[in-house]
Write a structure and sequence with these properties.
A hairpin with a 2-residue loop joins β6 and β7. The protein has 295 residues and is of the alpha+beta class. Strands 1-4 form a two-stranded antiparallel ribbon. A two-stranded antiparallel sheet has the order 2-3. The chain has a two-stranded antiparallel sheet with strand order 5-8. The chain is 34% helix and 12% strand. The chain has two domains: 63 residues, 3-methyladenine DNA Glycosylase II, Chain A, domain 3; 167 residues, Alpha-Beta Plaits (2-Layer Sandwich). The chain starts with a helix and ends in a 19-residue tail after the last strand.
């Protein structure tokens, strides 16, 4: 009786089983063909580039992360050198993967410089700001402080830094170059464009820590340590130029010399400062300072 029931069940079920098996084989063949026809071939160099990147996903290169940058630089070699945290070594490794040669002049790492040195006591304030405590919000008002070019000191740059390389000290953004990777996030966050990414060809470099385009008389009335456009630095060396009442450094010509040191010491307001991992504190106006290590 039991064997008869089993036999009857088999007789009624096997057509369905064969049908399901056949369908399975058909779908398997379709999927196999589709996987071959529609497969995306990934260049193995993308993974190789990704491995030599620092994988910090800081976004300093302009892409959402290191994986996106690896794909982009493979497609466009002109993007080579955009990785600030990786520096020259990473660029050289990527160039080797892409079988490219890069010039030594492009190997200097870029780091941020703050074009302002005015602390709270150096500034003239027109009113006490009590709004949203961000530089972006304060910058929308014209009467926060007399100098419309100077650091607002609310720390937008500090908040975007992933490497604890910035802090606000007495109303002024300060960079810890020992922690800085050169991602450029702080430069993009500053609503007054005070933070510039410049090549550090030397351990310490000179910078004009001011952004004021006002005349010397007006600048003096607003800030005790601003650039007054006196041209004393320009007369010492051609790495300095005067544009819109403001001294600027041409970093393509920058090289420490006796002339640059003279320009540094002759600056009447002390707005020319050394920046870098071992840079000395900015000197006070009229004070002569020992030369910083620049090698």
């Amino acid at each position: 009786m039991i064997l008869s029931d089993i036999f009857q069940l088999w007789q009624s079920a096997w057509p369905a089983g064969v049908t399901m098996l056949g369908l399975g084989l058909v779908f398997a063949v379709i999927l196999l063909i589709a996987s071959e026809k529609l497969k995306v071939i990934i260049d193995p160099r993308i993974d190789q580039i990704h491995k030599v990147l620092p994988n910090l996903d800081c976004g300093g290169c302009g892409f959402p992360g290191c994986a996106a940058y690896a794909k982009a630089v493979l497609e466009n070699s002109e993007l080579l050198g955009k990785c600030g945290p990786g520096g020259a070594k990473t660029s050289e490794n990527i160039a080797a993967i892409l079988n490219l040669q890069i010039s030594s002049s492009s190997s200097a790492p870029k780091r941020p410089v703050v074009h302002c040195r005015a602390h709270a006591a150096d500034k003239t304030y027109l009113a006490r700001y009590q709004g949203i405590p961000t530089c972006l919000a304060a910058n929308a008002l014209a009467n926060v402080q007399a100098c419309k070019f100077g650091c607002l000191g609310f720390g937008d740059c500090v908040r975007v830094c992933k490497f604890d390389a910035l802090s606000i000290i007495d109303g002024l953004a300060a960079i810890n170059y020992r922690n800085c990777t050169g991602c450029g996030a702080c430069s993009k966050a500053c609503p007054r464009d005070l933070i510039e990414m410049v090549p550090f060809n030397y351990q310490n470099i000179l910078s004009v820590a001011c952004s004021s385009r006002e005349t010397g008389k007006i600048t003096r009335s607003m800030c005790t340590v601003g650039c007054i456009g006196c041209s004393l630095c320009v007369k010492q060396t051609d790495i300095f130029s005067l544009q819109d009442n403001l001294a600027r450094v041409d970093y393509t010509k920058y090289q420490p010399s006796e002339q640059t040191e003279t320009a540094f010491n002759k600056c009447p307001t002390g707005v020319i400062v050394y920046l870098g991992k071992t840079a000395p504190a900015p000197r006070q106006p009229g004070e002569k300072q020992q030369k910083a290590v620049t090698t």
